[in-house]
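pasting for ref
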Amino acid sequence: MPTTRARVPRDHAPVRGAGRLLQLVLLCLAAWPLCGVAGPVTPPVRAIASISVSVADMERSVAFYRNVLSFDQVSDTEVAGDDYEHLYGVFGARIRIVTLRLGDEYLKLEQFIAPRGRPIPADSKSNDRWFQHIAIIVSDMDRAYAWLRTQHVEFASSGAQLLPQWNPGAGGIAAFYFRDPDGHNLEILHFPPGKGDPKWQAGGDRLFLGIDHSAIVVADTEASLGYYRDALGLRVAGGSENYGSEQEHLNNVFGARLRITALRAASGPGVELLEYLAPRTGRAMPVDTQSNDLWNWHIDMAADVTAVDAAIRSRHFSYVSPGPVRIGQGERQGLLLARDPDGHAALFEAR
């Protein structure tokens, strides 16, 4: 059936112009942070302060990180009480927390003296969505790998891998996955000149230099960006798509093809999103995950807790604590523990 185009009278032209103006106004309202005249908005998260991991035996874990990986112990505290129970979402919680330092970065080991959580599943794979690791930068990959061999660490990769030069984002980076005594995944990483933070090129005589980032497996990068970038204010610092034999042997996942997105705050380690484009067989974080379960980590962020709370609430992300929790009358006033779309935890502290 033929169609005809309706003729618009000339006196309707102003209406069309008003429509275009309305469209521009609506577009500007949708992107108000870019169109506003009040200047840039301070992101809710100011810095990544540390990475925390649950452990089963504090003495064993401290010995491993100090003696094998050259971390220095900074503090050793024990906490309990109603405030901490609400913060961590664990009734009757009594927690020993040891803070370690490597270079400029901090790692916190948390042992739930009571109640004890569940161990990491023995059949865990690198594409399961409870996967998380810290990437420890080394000044010499061959020497670091040889040292870890003498310490009889548990392999998670088949061996150290040099990523191919055809990959502009990752070419020339050397990496190796291994595990700590609880089965947590760790990575040693060596950046060639021109890649990574320039500070990693000035390591001196030290072998283990610091923590570059914590990597987490996610189901959907865009959904995760809605949390880390849009709600928390982290900036996207880079990305790549990694695949091939070297990546398969690094992750120990046959056919691995990953979309990798690096995020940063103003200071501290980064957060790296790992989305497995293939194989999509990784299992979801258990819905009943608790803070005392050994696969549970949390990234500790210095933040405007009120702004974070509002962003999480408005976007319907998940809380662990019932909301901001005040602990004592000192510096630890206003803490919030929440989970991203895949269940990875973050602890926000007002600083």
